[in-house]
Amino acid sequence: MDKSLGLIFLWICVGHMAHAAVMEKLANFKICADKDCSYVISMAKALEDYVASDCRYINLRRGQSIYVFSKLKPVEGAGVFWSGSVYGERYVDQMGVIGYFPSNYVNETHVFQEKTVEIPTTDMDFFCA
């Protein structure tokens, strides 16, 4: 019985991993409040709606508040994306989901952390599950 439960668990895990993928890197470096990117850099407000193009991104609704955790440092000629999580009682279904969004869709309203660190991005920064 224990062996069959273990096989079922393994089958479920492998099945979920088959749907995961490492996506193209959007940048080689990111700016964060700390070396783990666990603290919020700033708060922003969405200027207009943004529909996520894949699982690396989050949807934004105009007027929505967003906690910004990192800012990708773009390669010359590339777009500028920030990473964050939406906030607000109206958006409970999206709270806690962290993803990228174009920085030109938001207005930074409050900076919590002036001093930042630049760290390299990893493949896990662009992992889609």
From TrEMBL:
The domain of life is Eukaryota
Identify the residues that the record assigns to the SH3 domain, covering every copy.
39-111
The signal peptide here is 1-20
Q: Which Gene Ontology BP annotations are present? A: cartilage condensation
Keywords recorded for this protein, A-Z: SH3 domain, Signal
Protein name, entry field: Otoraplin-like
